[in-house]
Amino acid sequence: MNKKKKKCGDNDFNYLYNIITTNQDWHFLLYSPRKIFKANDTANLIKFFRKASEPNSRSYQLLCNSMKEVLSVIVGLLIDKNLGENAELKQENSVIPNLKNNLLVLNAKIAELKHKNTEALKANEKYNEKCDVKIKKLEQNNAELKAKIKELKKNNTKENAELKNRLMKVE
Fold first, then answer.
1. Distance between CA atoms of 160 and 153, rounded to whole angstroms?
2. Distance from first CA to last CA of the chain, Å, rounded?
């Protein structure tokens, strides 16, 4: 059941059909929210005589014609009802292609973001490799400088000892 709110311009297919019959008279009524309509001013009559049981009689032909007339009205009412339901279903189904298009667009965006993400990860990996190489070079330079400092300290202590010896000799 469609639970959407009705708008002013919407087609209102919420008709109620009623068939009122007596033994011979058939009346077709249409109830709408604003008015009650009758299919025609005269009742559709189905006259049944005993002679109508004979297939070749005129009464039989009249019975068949009046039955066709009544059934055509009933079929027309059913077709109208079916068309109203089909229009509603078509309107609901028109939403499905839009949702499919939205899904395709979102899937394309997801694929694009995944591609950008893998590119960013590769670029980050290359940058990290470059940084690792620089760090190794800096560590090597640091180790070399520490070795030079140790050597200079040793040389400095030797020179200081020599200077002290000279100073003592001079004094």
1. 10
2. 118
Instruction: Look at residue 137 and tell me whether its pLDDT is greater than 50.
Output: yes
Strand partners, 72: none
* Phi, psi (deg, nearest 5) at residue 7: -110, 165
Q: What is the pLDDT of residue 122?
A: 94
Q: What is the pTM for the complete model shown? A: 0.36
Query: Can you tell me whether residue 36 is helix, strand or coil?
Result: strand
Q: Which of 88, 86, 80 is nearest to 32 (CA)?
A: 80
CA gap 145, 136 in Å, rounded:
14
The domain spans of the chain are 16-94
b/e code 24-34 from CB counts within 10 Å (16+ = b): eebebeeeeee
Can you say whether the dihedral through the CA atoms of 130, 132, 133, 135 is positive or negative?
Answer: positive
**Cα dist. 166→87, 158, 161, 170 in Å?**
116, 12, 9, 6
Rounded CA separation 59/48 (Å): 8
pLDDT of residue 162: 82
What are the E-state strand segments in the chain? 16-21, 25-31, 36-38, 44-45
Q: Name the percent of the chain lying above pLDDT 90.
A: 26
